[in-house]
């Protein structure tokens, strides 16, 4: 069973467990995602913002950091000679820097920074030294990027990171073997058909999958053999909803809002309030604002326009009448009210929906090595 964590205390427990596990061989799956990267390494899961920042000034000190969703890493030596002595921030640690790259803004970066992404995961998870990791990855265009990703990721890599518990800098060496690079969403289909969430689906039967991510709604029609019959992309995922709510907060004219009327509200802080279940923007008395009303109003508009496009696609292609199952995954399906809307339409919303693709990629790794 995969261990997931939702707060720093659980993360520290997990980091201690893995470091002292004595494991020498791990299998995994990595979903580079849009807004967030998700990975399953062994029996542990990790999710971090897909963000990178290069440490350009090597003379600065005390910049090393680590948390449950971000870290500092230094590549010491190994197969990637071009990275020798390169330092970088990943995740929330990168977003904290003024000069950072969000991977969803440049899809090529998902391939170019594939190793850095994995090393950041391994740092936050606090893997034991000397581990061999066999892993499957996903990419939006494997035909274009698979060879390049494999060249960048595979090999032996020694890197440094801050220890989550002792807070000292530790050095780790890992051997990474890439067992496969699959189209985005392929892992999710594999998990549906062959994993814990297995759907009973004959090769001639169809299922409709809806993946609500940070940037898009992705509709996939697949059969019981795992073949993709058709796909349709609808722009404006959960990130668009967060932006709509932030813009609605910008237009408020209550007393608290007038104190900060020139400040643009942050979609990421909106997201934080939703995840925490407080529907509160900001964490202090001055800027803290409840946004249940804005959430309800913006959700209705966001949902109705996109579900209509979904319906148009599945009916025009004559898929809806033929589908045996409707399944949903991705971080957006967990949003309050959205999960109820999907259930009322007959969708099966899978458990741990954000990690379905990573779980399926790990399953493909295990199949490929005969585990």
What can you see in these coordinates?
The protein is an alpha+beta fold and 371 residues long. It has 2 domains: 189 residues, Nucleotidyltransferase, domain 5, CATH 3.30.420; 151 residues, Nucleotidyltransferase, domain 5 (2-Layer Sandwich). Strands 1, 2, 3, 4, 5, 6, 7, 8, 9, 10 and 11 form an 11-stranded mixed beta sheet that branches. It has a 5-stranded mixed beta sheet with strand order 14-13-12-17-18, covered by helices on one side. A hairpin with an 8-residue loop joins strand 6 and strand 7. The longest helix has 25 residues. It is globular and about 55 Å long.
What's the shape? Answer: globular
Helix count equals 12
Order of helices and strands: HEEEEEEEHEHHEHEEHEEEHHHEEHEHEH
Provide the CATH top-level class of the largest domain: Alpha Beta
Based on the structure given, which CATH architecture of the largest domain is correct? 2-Layer Sandwich
Distance between the termini: 16 Å
Domain Actin-like protein N-terminal: 30-187
Protein name: Actin-like protein N-terminal domain-containing protein
Pfam families: ALP_N
